[in-house]
Amino acid sequence: MNLLGILLSGGLDTDTQSQTSGRLPLEYAAALILLFAAVFVVHFVRRAYRQPKRIGGTPMEVPGNTVKAFDIVERLFHWSLFITLGLVMVSGIAIYLPGTFNFLLSAFGVAGTNAAQTAADLMWHTDMLWLLLGLIAIHIVWDLAVARTGRTIIPGMSDTKDTMIRVQGFLGLGPSVQPRHGKYDAFMKLFHWGLVLCLVVLGISGLYLWNPYGLMPTISPSLESTFRLFHDFFAFLLIGLVAGHIYFAILPINWPVLRSILTGTISGDAYNHDFDSSRWTPKKKAATAAPAAEASGPAPPMGAAGTANAVKAGPSGGVKDDSEELEVK
Q1: How confident is the model at residue 76 (pLDDT cuts 50, 70, 90)?
Q2: Mean per-residue pLDDT, 95-106
Q3: Cα separation of 85 and 297, whole Å?
Q4: Distance of alpha carbon 80 from alpha carbon 82, whole angstroms
Q5: What is the distance of C-alpha 59 from the center of its chain?
Q6: pTM listed for this prediction
C-alpha cells in the first residue's frame, strides 16, 4: 500500500477475517434487492405508458418558454455524487462478495479474492468516503447558505395529501390523478431523506468498523457484529434506492427533469404540466428584472409568491420571448 493510501485509510485494519464475519446473509440481501425489483416491475406495468391526469396547481406565463431549474453547482454535485456513490457501492460489494466486479476493479489494481486484494478493496472503499464527505459538505453549504433552496426538499402536509391521492389512484381505489407539485414531489423527498438515513447509519456503523487510527472506543464482538449487520442492510437499501432513482429518471414522462439536470433548464410547457407555481414559483433574474420594470413604467402587480418580480398567473403554456429566462428559487 502506498503512503497516501495508508494515510487516507486511517491506518485501516487489514484483518480480512474481522471484515467478513457477522455479515448480513446473502439470502436477505438478495430478498431486499428483489423486493425493489418487484416494485419497479409493478410500477412499470401500471404507469410506464398510462400516466395519471395532472390536477391542481396554478399555470404561469413563462417568458422565453424556459425555466431555470438547477444551477451549475447543483448539477455538478448531482453527477459527482452519482459517480462517487457508484464507486463506493462497487468497492463495498467487492468486500461483501470477494471477486465481484473484478472486471472493473482490476483497472484500479484491487481485483481478486485473496487477503491482500480484500485489504486493497477496503482501502479503496474508505478512500472514496473522503470524496463523498467533501461533496456532502459542499452540498449542505451551497443549498443552505448560498442558493438557499433547502426548504424545497422539506416535506409538508400537502405532500401527505398528494401521496394519499396518488397511492389510491395507483391501487385503483380512487381516480387516476396526480396533483401538480413543487420542485420535488413527495416521493422525491422520500428518496432524498431515505438517502440521508442510509448515509447516516452507514457513516456511524462504518466509522466504528473502520476505527481510523484507533480513535473509536473498543466495542464487544457482539456489538461489532450488530454494526456490521446494520451496515450491510443499509448498504443494500441504499443500492435499492439508487436503482429506483435511475429507474424513475429514465421513464419518458420524467425526461424533462432528467434533461434539466444536464442543461439546468426545463421548458415552460413542461413546467406548467408537472409543477404548481404556488409551491415552486419562477422569478425573473435580478439582472434582467430591474431594466424590464423601468421600461414598463408602473410596477407589476403582485404574483403568486406575493413579490413584485413574481411572474403573473395566466393561461397554461409558454410565451415565446427569447429575451427573458426564468429562474426558480
Answers
A1: very high
A2: 75
A3: 52
A4: 5
A5: 27
A6: 0.77
